[in-house]
Design a protein that fits this description.
This protein is of the alpha+beta class. The chain has helices at about 35-40, 65-75, 80-90, 95-105, 110-125, 130-140, 145-155, 160, 170-175, 185-195, 245-255, 265-270, 280, 295-305, 310-325, 340-345, 355-370, 380-390, 395-405, 420-430, 435-440, 450-460, and strands at about 5, 10-15, 25-30, 40-45, 55-60, 175-180, 205, 210-215, 220-225, 235-240, 260-265. The longest helix has 19 residues, at about 110-125.
Length: about 475
């Protein structure tokens, strides 16, 4: 799918809707911003394609490539080499570069460089931070490196891009404001999904706002998201941290939580042509919510087995209160704790929290498997399914939900889900079809059954 269009005669690339009207013969389509940059083009100063969300990769890419893109987005190349990245996902460096060029349009190093430069540009636009602070926040080793890369990517030195404007500064610990390139309407939809699932004390929603605690470089922090401005192109955020270091990785985690880490263009196109789903999908299939922390989301899904959504949230809050690290002095929306780590839950006593002893043991066993490395929540979906199913108390529904939310498998499909069964029943004119019938119907939606499930959940009276 074409994301940006470059203009040979001007050396710039633009997003759709740019007021500039170059002759079509002079334009070149690119599937990503970084691909256009790798070809020598810079972002248009009129339509500002650099304000759009960062790079994502299509579902047709091999899972190791998608995992590598995620690692790059979260700063892996700030402290490792391309060869390290390739070895981590099981490829040679040469093969990984070839696959990146095929599916992203640029090498891993170019993707990481572009991400850091674009985030630095946003801080130059929106703040009056010193270059050294912007470099730390964006993953650069120094202000000098930041200046060199930003100049190469945008064609102007940081001082020219800033233009003497005075943006927000603020103390990160007291609340540092940011504008995030995510569609507010889509964010509001995901907040609606998150609202009944928030872990009390760890997460909070109110209206079109979302807040949560997290740990960053060993320090607790809080993120606040406000998507209430229906006229805005971006979403307002406030981050509470003791320093600016690695701020860019928190932005990427936010994008993953709200589903902006996935390229759904191909899925939308395929499902819009389906006889059963076409009218529900139209041209705007919903985003597939992801996760902030893989382990936290996996535990929340396990806790929610065979209880109501609200009941699952209550139990998850008790787990956090019992085992999570207290966060002193945050003072934001009643957020009081970090969600416990795998190591903490593996040794925890979860009796007396109101959940069946068998489910408490499942959580402890899951935590132990993650802590020991026997369960890789960042591994291939099929391998993760097998690892999860080996845990007593984890069945197909749980495994599929974890693969969809955590491993980002767009073909994950929990066919036993009651809301899905009812939704498919309405499509085919039955009451509540059996799990086997639902699974058979869903075969028509491969390899995007997870996106189809999200469409059906969102269009049902009961949200998943």
């Amino acid at each position: 799918m074409v994301k940006v269009t470059a203009v040979r005669t001007t050396g710039i690339y633009c997003r759709a809707g740019c007021p500039a009207r170059p002759h079509q013969v002079n334009t070149v389509p690119y599937r990503s911003q970084v691909a256009a940059e790798a070809a020598g083009y810079r972002a248009c100063l009129r339509c500002r394609p650099d304000l759009e969300p960062g790079e994502s990769v299509g579902a047709d890419a091999p899972y190791p490539v998608r995992r590598a893109v995620d690692l790059v987005a979260h700063g892996y190349l700030d402290t490792h080499t391309e060869s390290d990245l390739a070895a981590f996902v099981g490829y040679s460096a040469r093969h990984l570069r070839r696959l990146f060029l095929e599916h992203v349009g640029a090498t891993p190093d170019a993707v990481g460089r572009s991400q850091r430069a674009h985030f630095a540009r946003k801080l130059l636009d929106d703040t009056d931070l010193a270059l050294a602070d912007i470099a730390a926040a964006s993953g650069f080793s120094s202000a000098r490196q930041l200046s060199r890369v930003v100049t190469e990517v945008f064609g102007f030195a940081p001082s020219r891009l800033r233009g003497g404007q005075k943006g927000a500064r603020g103390d990160v610990d007291g609340g540092f404001p940011l504008m995030l390139g995510m569609d507010p309407s889509s964010v509001r939809d995901v907040i609606g999904h998150l609202q009944p699932r928030c872990v009390p004390g760890v997460e909070h929603t109110e209206g079109f706002s979302y807040a949560r605690t997290f740990e960053h470089f060993g320090h607790p922090g809080v993120l606040e998201i406000d998507a209430s401005d229906q006229e805005a192109r971006q979403v307002a955020a406030v981050v509470h941290l003791p320093s600016y270091s690695g701020l860019v990785s928190l932005v990427e985690r936010t994008r993953r939580l709200f589903g902006f880490d996935l390229d759904l263009d191909e899925a939308r196109s395929a499902l819009a042509d389906d006889e059963l789903l076409g009218e529900l999908v139209g041209s705007t299939a919903p985003l597939v919510p992801g996760c902030w922390d893989r382990f936290e989301t996996a535990v929340r899904i396990v806790v929610g087995q065979q209880v109501s959504v609200v009941g699952g949230s209550t139990l998850a809050g008790r787990v956090a209160e019992s085992c999570g690290r207290p966060v002193a002095g945050v003072g934001v929306l009643g957020l009081q704790r970090l969600f416990p780590s795998p190591e903490q839950l593996a040794e925890a006593d979860l009796s007396g929290l109101g959940m069946p002893s068998s489910r408490a043991q499942t959580i402890i066993d899951l935590a132990g498997g993650v802590a020991s490395g026997e369960i890789g929540l960042d591994g291939e979906p099929d391998e993760l399914r097998s690892q999860l199913m080996a845990v007593r108390g984890v069945g197909p529904w749980t495994a599929e939900m974890v693969c969809l939310r955590v491993a980002r498998d767009l073909d994950a499909f929990p066919s036993s889900d009651l809301v899905l069964r009812d939704a498919v029943g309405r499509l085919i004119g039955q009451g509540r079809p059996s799990q086997a019938v639902v699974a058979a119907v869903a075969e028509r939606w491969r390899p995007f059954r997870g996106v189809a499930a999200t469409v059906l959940w969102n269009r049902s009276a009961a949200r998943y």
